[in-house]
Amino acid sequence: MKSTERGSDMLMQIDQATLLVVDIQDKLLPAVDQADAMLAASLWLVGVAHDTGLPIVFSEQYPRGLGHTEASLLALAPQAAVVEKLHFSCVAADCLPDSLLARKQVIVCGMETHVCVLQTVLQLLAQGKQVFVVADAVASRRDSDKQLGLQRMQAAGAVLVSREMVLFEMLGVAGSELFKAMSRKYLMGVQPG
Fold first, then answer.
1. Which of 112, 67, 118, 71 is nearest to 92 (CA)?
2. Which of 19, 62, 190, 191 is most enclosed, with most CB atoms within 10 A?
3. pLDDT in tens, 33-60
4. Residue 159 phi, psi (nearest 5)
5. String of DSSP letters for 138-192
6. Model pTM?
Protein backbone atom coordinates (compact mmCIF):
# COMPACT_ATOMS: atom_id res chain seq x y z
CA MET A 1 0.00 0.00 0.00
CA LYS A 2 1.34 3.42 -0.94
CA SER A 3 1.84 5.97 1.83
CA THR A 4 -0.74 8.26 0.20
CA GLU A 5 -3.33 5.47 0.43
CA ARG A 6 -2.56 4.96 4.12
CA GLY A 7 -2.94 8.71 4.65
CA SER A 8 -6.36 8.62 3.00
CA ASP A 9 -7.47 6.02 5.54
CA MET A 10 -6.75 8.56 8.27
CA LEU A 11 -8.81 11.33 6.70
CA MET A 12 -12.48 11.94 7.37
CA GLN A 13 -14.37 10.96 4.21
CA ILE A 14 -17.80 12.25 3.33
CA ASP A 15 -18.96 8.90 1.95
CA GLN A 16 -17.82 7.05 5.08
CA ALA A 17 -18.75 9.43 7.91
CA THR A 18 -21.72 10.63 9.93
CA LEU A 19 -21.83 13.63 12.27
CA LEU A 20 -23.16 12.68 15.72
CA VAL A 21 -24.26 15.67 17.81
CA VAL A 22 -24.48 14.46 21.41
CA ASP A 23 -26.99 15.99 23.81
CA ILE A 24 -26.82 19.72 23.07
CA GLN A 25 -30.10 20.28 24.88
CA ASP A 26 -31.74 23.51 25.87
CA LYS A 27 -32.05 22.88 29.64
CA LEU A 28 -28.46 21.61 30.06
CA LEU A 29 -26.76 24.10 27.76
CA PRO A 30 -26.67 27.05 30.22
CA ALA A 31 -24.81 24.88 32.76
CA VAL A 32 -21.77 24.10 30.58
CA ASP A 33 -18.56 26.09 30.52
CA GLN A 34 -18.20 28.33 27.46
CA ALA A 35 -21.74 27.38 26.35
CA ASP A 36 -22.03 30.20 23.80
CA ALA A 37 -18.73 29.32 22.12
CA MET A 38 -19.54 25.60 22.03
CA LEU A 39 -23.00 26.28 20.58
CA ALA A 40 -21.57 28.65 17.94
CA ALA A 41 -18.97 26.03 16.97
CA SER A 42 -21.63 23.32 16.80
CA LEU A 43 -23.93 25.50 14.67
CA TRP A 44 -21.02 26.11 12.27
CA LEU A 45 -20.24 22.39 12.17
CA VAL A 46 -23.87 21.32 11.61
CA GLY A 47 -24.15 23.94 8.86
CA VAL A 48 -21.04 22.56 7.15
CA ALA A 49 -22.36 19.00 7.46
CA HIS A 50 -25.74 19.96 6.02
CA ASP A 51 -24.27 21.99 3.16
CA THR A 52 -21.80 19.25 2.14
CA GLY A 53 -24.34 16.43 2.46
CA LEU A 54 -22.72 14.78 5.48
CA PRO A 55 -25.41 12.79 7.36
CA ILE A 56 -26.29 14.15 10.82
CA VAL A 57 -27.75 12.45 13.91
CA PHE A 58 -28.77 14.29 17.09
CA SER A 59 -29.00 12.45 20.42
CA GLU A 60 -30.98 13.59 23.45
CA GLN A 61 -30.33 12.46 27.01
CA TYR A 62 -33.56 12.09 29.02
CA PRO A 63 -35.35 14.87 27.08
CA ARG A 64 -38.30 14.92 29.48
CA GLY A 65 -35.95 16.28 32.14
CA LEU A 66 -33.20 17.99 30.13
CA GLY A 67 -35.22 19.36 27.24
CA HIS A 68 -34.71 18.80 23.55
CA THR A 69 -31.90 19.57 21.15
CA GLU A 70 -31.26 23.31 20.87
CA ALA A 71 -33.79 24.53 18.28
CA SER A 72 -31.22 26.52 16.29
CA LEU A 73 -29.29 23.28 15.60
CA LEU A 74 -32.40 21.41 14.48
CA ALA A 75 -33.35 24.30 12.21
CA LEU A 76 -30.09 23.86 10.28
CA ALA A 77 -30.72 20.15 9.68
CA PRO A 78 -34.48 19.51 9.76
CA GLN A 79 -34.13 16.09 8.07
CA ALA A 80 -31.59 14.78 10.61
CA ALA A 81 -32.47 11.82 12.82
CA VAL A 82 -33.12 12.62 16.49
CA VAL A 83 -32.70 9.73 18.94
CA GLU A 84 -33.54 9.61 22.64
CA LYS A 85 -31.66 7.75 25.36
CA LEU A 86 -31.38 7.16 29.08
CA HIS A 87 -27.95 5.52 29.00
CA PHE A 88 -25.13 8.03 28.89
CA SER A 89 -23.64 6.24 25.87
CA CYS A 90 -25.54 6.30 22.60
CA VAL A 91 -24.10 2.83 21.92
CA ALA A 92 -25.26 1.36 25.23
CA ALA A 93 -28.68 2.91 24.64
CA ASP A 94 -28.87 1.08 21.29
CA CYS A 95 -30.47 4.18 19.78
CA LEU A 96 -28.17 4.94 16.86
CA PRO A 97 -29.76 4.52 13.44
CA ASP A 98 -28.55 1.82 11.08
CA SER A 99 -27.44 4.53 8.65
CA LEU A 100 -24.82 5.70 11.18
CA LEU A 101 -23.77 2.19 12.18
CA ALA A 102 -23.28 1.21 8.52
CA ARG A 103 -20.54 3.82 8.09
CA LYS A 104 -17.01 3.31 9.38
CA GLN A 105 -16.39 6.87 10.60
CA VAL A 106 -18.21 8.93 13.21
CA ILE A 107 -17.48 12.62 13.76
CA VAL A 108 -18.62 13.62 17.25
CA CYS A 109 -19.42 16.92 18.94
CA GLY A 110 -21.62 17.83 21.89
CA MET A 111 -21.78 17.57 25.64
CA GLU A 112 -20.82 16.65 28.17
CA THR A 113 -17.32 15.79 27.02
CA HIS A 114 -16.45 13.63 30.03
CA VAL A 115 -19.79 11.81 30.29
CA CYS A 116 -22.04 11.17 27.27
CA VAL A 117 -19.49 12.12 24.62
CA LEU A 118 -16.74 10.06 26.30
CA GLN A 119 -18.84 6.95 26.88
CA THR A 120 -20.28 7.07 23.36
CA VAL A 121 -16.84 7.52 21.80
CA LEU A 122 -15.25 4.71 23.81
CA GLN A 123 -18.00 2.30 22.82
CA LEU A 124 -17.91 3.35 19.15
CA LEU A 125 -14.16 2.65 19.19
CA ALA A 126 -14.84 -0.75 20.76
CA GLN A 127 -17.15 -1.46 17.80
CA GLY A 128 -14.27 -0.78 15.41
CA LYS A 129 -15.38 2.68 14.27
CA GLN A 130 -12.93 5.45 13.39
CA VAL A 131 -13.97 8.27 15.69
CA PHE A 132 -13.09 11.93 15.24
CA VAL A 133 -13.91 14.26 18.16
CA VAL A 134 -14.31 17.93 17.25
CA ALA A 135 -12.39 19.44 20.16
CA ASP A 136 -13.68 22.97 19.63
CA ALA A 137 -17.30 21.79 19.56
CA VAL A 138 -17.50 19.84 22.84
CA ALA A 139 -18.09 21.12 26.37
CA SER A 140 -18.52 20.12 30.00
CA ARG A 141 -19.70 22.00 33.06
CA ARG A 142 -16.03 22.34 34.10
CA ASP A 143 -13.15 22.87 31.68
CA SER A 144 -11.00 20.42 33.67
CA ASP A 145 -13.54 17.66 32.96
CA LYS A 146 -13.55 18.58 29.26
CA GLN A 147 -9.76 18.33 29.10
CA LEU A 148 -9.69 14.99 30.91
CA GLY A 149 -12.43 13.65 28.64
CA LEU A 150 -10.50 14.70 25.53
CA GLN A 151 -7.28 13.14 26.87
CA ARG A 152 -9.00 9.87 27.67
CA MET A 153 -10.71 9.64 24.27
CA GLN A 154 -7.44 10.38 22.48
CA ALA A 155 -5.56 7.79 24.54
CA ALA A 156 -8.22 5.23 23.59
CA GLY A 157 -7.73 5.90 19.86
CA ALA A 158 -10.10 8.73 18.98
CA VAL A 159 -8.65 11.44 16.76
CA LEU A 160 -9.05 15.02 17.97
CA VAL A 161 -9.92 17.43 15.16
CA SER A 162 -11.10 21.00 14.67
CA ARG A 163 -14.16 22.26 12.83
CA GLU A 164 -12.01 23.48 9.95
CA MET A 165 -10.43 20.05 9.57
CA VAL A 166 -13.93 18.64 9.10
CA LEU A 167 -14.76 21.27 6.48
CA PHE A 168 -11.60 20.79 4.44
CA GLU A 169 -11.72 16.99 4.59
CA MET A 170 -15.37 16.93 3.54
CA LEU A 171 -14.51 19.12 0.53
CA GLY A 172 -11.25 17.38 -0.36
CA VAL A 173 -10.34 19.77 -3.17
CA ALA A 174 -10.28 23.51 -3.86
CA GLY A 175 -11.54 25.25 -6.94
CA SER A 176 -15.01 23.75 -7.21
CA GLU A 177 -18.17 25.83 -6.97
CA LEU A 178 -18.98 24.07 -3.69
CA PHE A 179 -15.55 24.97 -2.29
CA LYS A 180 -16.00 28.60 -3.30
CA ALA A 181 -19.46 28.79 -1.73
CA MET A 182 -18.32 27.04 1.47
CA SER A 183 -15.25 29.27 1.69
CA ARG A 184 -17.39 32.39 1.44
CA LYS A 185 -19.93 31.14 3.96
CA TYR A 186 -17.71 29.47 6.56
CA LEU A 187 -14.18 30.79 6.19
CA MET A 188 -14.61 34.42 5.20
CA GLY A 189 -17.68 35.00 7.33
CA VAL A 190 -19.66 36.30 4.34
CA GLN A 191 -23.14 34.87 4.16
CA PRO A 192 -24.36 34.39 0.60
CA GLY A 193 -27.20 36.77 -0.17
1. 118
2. 19
3. 999 999 999 999 999 999 999 999 999 9
4. -105, 125
5. EE-SSHHHHHHHHHHHHHHTPEEE-HHHHHHHHH-SSSSHHHHHHIIIIIS-PPP
6. 0.93
